[in-house]
What we know:
Elements: E1 23-24, E2 39-50, E3 56-70, E4 74-87, E5 92-103, E6 109-118, E7 121-133, E8 139-146, E9 150-154, E10 158-159, H1 161-173, E11 178-183, E12 194-200, E13 226-235, E14 247-254, E15 259-265, E16 269-280
Parallel strand pairs: 1-11, 10-11
Antiparallel strand pairs: 2-3, 2-16, 3-4, 4-5, 5-6, 6-7, 7-8, 8-9, 11-12, 12-13, 13-14, 14-15, 15-16
Amino acid sequence: MTTRFGYALIALSTLVAGLASGTASRSAAAADLVPFSPHRAVYDLSLGDASAGSGVTGIVGRMVYELKGSPCEGYTQNMRFVTVMTNQDGVETVSDLRNSSWEEADAKKLRFSSTQYQNDELADSSQGDALRTKGATPVVGVDLVKPAKKRLSLPTDIYFPMQHASTLVQAAKSGVKMFTANLYDGSEKGEKYYLTNTIIGQKFGTGPDASVGTFKGADQLAKVESWPMTISYFDAGKEHEDQTPAYELSFRYFENGVTSDLKIDYGEFSIKGDLKELTFLEPGKCPAATTPTK
C-alpha cells in the first residue's frame, strides 16, 4: 500500500450533479472538508489470498497511520508501512514505506514526501508540492523536488487525498453507490495519478449492539456511521471498463476518518490489515471568530 491506505486508505469537495441517479460525477471544485477526527491507528498485516503463480508464500507486518489537523488548518497524514514478504524459495524481503503529507483545507495545495526502503536500502523516494489555481484557465501543477526537479501538469478535475476522502463520506451519507474520480497523492515518483472507481455498500448499524471489532478503542466507534467501500485503481487515460485494476482497496470506512477491515488486492495475492489499536488525538485548533471593530 501507498498513501492511499491512509486516505484510504485511506482516503477525499462537494458532490455535484449525479446524486439523484445514484452516481456521483467527477469534480475537483474545492469545498468544505468533512471534520475528520485526528487519530492514530495500528494495523497488523498478513497474507490474504495468494495464487500458485504469485510466488508469495507469506507476509507479516505492521502499519501505523496518524491523522492530525482540522478543517480550518488542513490535515497532516503520517504513515509507516513495514512488511516482510517470503517467496516460494524461502527468501525474505523487508519493505519499509514512510509517507507524510499535508493538504490545505480547501484542497488548493498538497505537500507530500514518500520514501521506500527494501532490505534497508533506499529503493524509491518522492517529494513535492501540488497546487490548484483558479482563473480563466484553471491549472493543477506539481513541482517535484525528488527524485528529480520537474514540473508537471495534472487534469483540472483531479482530487487530492483528503478531498477525495471527504467526498466519499458525503457520497455515502447521500446514498450514492458509485463514485469515479481522478486521484493524485504524490506516490509513484510523484508523476502518476489514477482513475479510481469506488463502490459504496449498505451502511452498517450503529448503537449499543453495533459490531465494530475487538481492538483497543473500538467502543468509541459504536455510534459512528460507517460503510463498506471498495476502491479500484486504474491506469489513467484508459477506459477502465477495458482494463483490469492495478489493485483494489477494500475497507470499512467510518465518517470520522477511521478505517478497519483493510484489504489490498493485487490480483495474484492480497494483504489483510487488522486494526489492533485506535487512539484519538487532540483536535487541531481553529481560530475563534473575531468581532469587527467599529
